[in-house]
Amino acid sequence: MIKAAISGTGLYTPPEKISNEELVEAFNQYVANFNKQHASDISDGTVEPLQASSAAFIEKASGIKNRRVINKSGILDPERMAPYIAERRDDEPSIQCDMAVLAANEALEQSGKTVADIDAVIVACSNMPRAYPALSVEVQSRMGIDGFAYDMNVACSSATFGLQAAVNAVENGTARAVLVISPEICTAHLNFRDRDSHFIFGDACTAIVVEQMATASSNDVYEVVGTKLKTVFSNNIRNNFGFLNRCDEAGVGKADKLFVQQGRKVFKDVVPMVASIIGDHLKENNLAPEQLKRMWLHQANLSMNKLISKKVMGREATSLEAPVILDEYANTSSAGSVIAYHKYKGDIEKGDIGVICSFGAGYSVGSVLLRKC
Ligand code: CO8
């Protein structure tokens, strides 16, 4: 029986960075402008004044200190509050394709493989640049990969769901090796005018090489012990952007065409769901929680990750056991757990067990159990 392994990962980090303080300064300027502009409506009670944001609240509530972004100037302009990302011509590579190629090349280098070894490309992320042709096919073509490619979107769980598809393809023999790539430009779908969520997201791209255990020869090979996925429908994280928007003029300009969430509800619903899925996944593979040496968790909220790791391990996890990248990257959707894995995998011992676990909109949860070879 063919067994699959992860033999390399790559990460593209955008060079521009925004601290909580910079973000809050721009937001509060927007609030001051709005309240001044609507002063008479506010004083006669027909318009609610906007409230200021706070860097201290953001760090305390989420653990986020900075975020990496594709474009800083547009986000920090109180008159705009959205990144500037120029539309590209059809004969130019799309921006997510550029990010994907950079991350994928690093993953290939780490795995000691070339494009000739890859049979499939799965681009798995929260937002695609267009309806078609698929971004994955563009990436495949740019990289010169002979085989097949397709896109997947399961919001924050896209990468783990993509990993299961890649593992299945390798283990059933339909591909020798697969690239799973997650180019996330979360800032393009974030409402920077919304006090409750303006601080949540950042941009990044990850890539993973999945191949047969028998061919994996890099210094950093992790056998895929198993994958477990779960989805439960919820409107608590929602984005109504879509191709039908132009068919109903009444919806134009409504904030629901960007990311919207009930953060408290998400927190309460998702923590127990994730902990029980990881627990069940360990049990199904005859593994005890004490054997879990590392939890590369989705990076949305620090308290959430502390609670999940405590529920799974039965005690507080150390910062090495459940590493955090959220402070520097914020929530990068599906890329988050893979960034944690990319940065904090090298030091675990041969035979150690770790789990990559994503969770987010859908709801969706993806658990990928790994054993260091
Ligand atoms: N500054 C100061 N005060 C604030 C701010 C702010 N910016 N925002 C809110 N407050 C105030 C509130 O008004 C409230 O005041 P009061 O107590 O007087 O009513 C108080 O702070 C507490 O507010 P909350 O209850 O909202 O604060 P929480 O402690 O719950 O923290 C979080 C908010 C950080 C959002 C938290 O609830 C959380 O992280 N929840 C989990 C969210 C999560 O995991 N979401 C996953 C979504 S990601 C995903 O699935 C990907 C989707 C696809 C991405 C697409 C790209 C965009």
Would you give an account of this structure?
- This protein has 373 residues and is α+β, with helices and mostly antiparallel strands.
- The chain has a domain at 223-372: Peroxisomal Thiolase, Chain A, domain 1, CATH 3.40.47.
- The protein is 33% helix and 22% strand.
- It has helices at 20-37, 39-43, 55-62, 73-76, 95-111, 135-143, 158-171, 263-284, 302-313, 326-329, 335-343; strands at 4-12, 16-19, 66-69, 120-124, 148-152, 177-185, 203-212, 222-231, 237-238, 260-261, 292-297, 353-360, 364-372.
- A 9-stranded mixed β-sheet has the order 5-4-6-7-1-8-13-12-11, sandwiched between helices.
- Helix 5 packs across helix 6 (135-143).
- The site of octanoyl-coenzyme A has 29 residues, from helix 3 and helix 8.
* Alpha-carbon distance between the two ends: 18 Å
How much helicity do the residues have?
25-40%
Provide the CATH topology of the domain at 223-372. Peroxisomal Thiolase, Chain A, domain 1
Radius of gyration: 21 Å
- What CATH architecture of the domain at 223-372 would you give? 3-Layer(aba) Sandwich
Overall pLDDT confidence: 97
Specify the overall morphology: globular
**Class from secondary-structure proportions:** alpha+beta
Bound ligands, named by name, code or SMILES: octanoyl-coenzyme A
Would you identify the CATH H-level superfamily of the domain at 223-372? Thiolase/Chalcone synthase
* Uncertain stretches: none
Based on the model shown, name its key terms:
Peroxisomal Thiolase, Chain A, domain 1, two-stranded antiparallel ribbon, 11 helices, 13 strands, 33% helix, binds octanoyl-coenzyme A, transferase, ACP_syn_III_C, Beta-ketoacyl-ACP synthase III, Thiolase-like
